[in-house]
Amino acid sequence: MAIQRTFSIIKPDATKRNLTGKIIAKFEDAGLRVVASKRIQLTLAQAQEFYGVHKDRPFFGELCEFMISEPIVVQVLEGENAIQKNRDVMGATNPADAAEGTIRKEFALSIGENSVHGSDAPETAKEEIAYFFSGLELVG
Ligand code: DAT
Ligand code: MG
């Protein structure tokens, strides 16, 4: 498996509780390198566009309101098999189902307030990285 890049968000529930450093440590301990990072606050329109794939789901409104409720940290993570590796470190969407040692098991509050986002495939990783970062901001 080649070196990949994936897109990550440290979500409002985690930035609010000052967990940014602990979450980044989990990425780094798993062999993922932070090659871009910034703290931003999304507008409602940006949150709705980012999560557009879920627009017909019953939780869409709640999800978008949550994502704009506090600043977030958007990052690009690089490493061997980075997309799957990041998903493994994140754990299952619902923290009740997440494995021991994963970010969501340790830090998530609920299925909605689940501390992190990570791209789920190479195409979405590419799109999500390009949405938040210019090429000049990616420093491998
Ligand atoms: P993931 O973030 O693990 O890729 P997803 O893409 O299915 O999960 O959903 C995106 C986000 O939407 C998820 O991180 C939290 C929220 N969400 C998903 N299912 C939900 C549910 N049943 N109730 C409330 N929020 C939900
Ligand atoms: Mg997803």
TrEMBL record:
One of the record's GO cellular component terms: cytoplasm
Predominant cellular place of this UniProt entry's protein: cytoplasm
Its EC number(s): 2.7.4.6
Class in the EC hierarchy, top level: transferase
InterPro entries: NDK-like_dom, NDK-like_dom_sf, Nucleoside_diP_kinase, Nucleoside_diP_kinase_AS
Cofactor: Mg(2+)
Classification via SUPFAM superfamilies: Nucleoside diphosphate kinase, NDK
Record-linked Pfam families: NDK
Gene3D superfamilies in alphabetical order: Nucleoside diphosphate kinase-like domain
Domain of life (superkingdom): Bacteria
GO biological process, one term: UTP biosynthetic process
GO molecular function, one term: ATP binding
Keyword Nucleotide-binding found: yes
HAMAP family with a match to the protein in the record: NDP_kinase (MF_00451)
Family named by the database record: Belongs to the NDK family.
Entry function: Major role in the synthesis of nucleoside triphosphates other than ATP. The ATP gamma phosphate is transferred to the NDP beta phosphate via a ping-pong mechanism, using a phosphorylated active-site intermediate.
Protein name, as recorded: Nucleoside diphosphate kinase
Organism expressing this protein natively: Loktanella atrilutea
This protein's encoding gene: ndk
